[in-house]
């Protein structure tokens, strides 16, 4: 497992921006695909975005496509989620997760960071 620590959450107005960061403690960060998930009260956890280990493939949920951007800096063992044009529907706790590129499941999760978008 990989230790993951999210940061960057907070309270923002509709239309504002936030950048979430996830710092990973591992010597082999480049071997992991990274994902951002979120969960709001009364809703199931959903995958927001993912990036493959080499950054060659990206995925975004339809609800955030065009507004969010996932990126990674393997030299810094960090994955980012740039969130623009935020909506109240984006309010949730956001979690960073890691999986080996050879695995089908995410085996490491961070504690999460709260994002609240005021309406």
Structural features, described:
- The chain is mostly beta strands.
- It is 0% helix and 53% strand.
- It is built from no helices and eleven strands.
- It has strands at residues 3-7, 10-13, 18-25, 32-39, 46-51, 58-60, 68-73, 78-83, 92-100, 108-109, 113-118.
- Strands 2, 4, 5, 6, 9, 10 and 11 form a seven-stranded mixed beta sheet that branches. The chain has a four-stranded antiparallel beta sheet with strand order 1-3-8-7, with no helix packed on it.
- A hairpin with a 4-residue loop joins strand 7 (68-73) and strand 8 (78-83).
- The mean pLDDT is 96.
Question: Count the helices. How many?
Answer: 0
Shape: globular
Summarize the amount of helix as a percent range.
under 10%
Given helix and strand content, the structural type is mainly beta
Spans of at least 5 consecutive residues with low confidence: none
Order of helices and strands: EEEEEEEEEEE
- Rg of Cα set: 13 Å
How many distinct beta strands?
Answer: 11
Please describe the biggest sheet, giving its number of strands, its sense, and whether it closes into a barrel.
7 strands, mixed
Distance between the termini: 38 Å
Instruction: Give the mean pLDDT.
Output: 96
Percent of residues in beta strands? over 45%
Oligomer designation: single chain
Keywords for this structure?
single chain; 119 residues; mainly beta; 7-stranded mixed β-sheet; 4-stranded antiparallel β-sheet
């Amino acid at each position: 497992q990989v230790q993951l620590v999210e940061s960057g959450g907070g309270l923002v107005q509709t239309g504002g921006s936030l950048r979430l960061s996830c710092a990973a403690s591992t010597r082999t960060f480049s071997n992991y695909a990274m994902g951002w998930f979120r969960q709001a009260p009364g809703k199931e956890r959903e995958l927001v975005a993912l990036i493959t280990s080499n950054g060659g493939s990206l995925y975004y949920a339809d609800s955030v496509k065009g507004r969010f951007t996932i990126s990674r800096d393997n030299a810094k063992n960090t994955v980012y989620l740039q969130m623009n044009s935020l909506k109240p529907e984006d309010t949730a706790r956001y979690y960073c997760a890691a999986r080996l590129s050879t695995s089908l499941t995410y085996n490491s999760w961070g504690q999460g960071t709260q994002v609240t978008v005021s309406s």
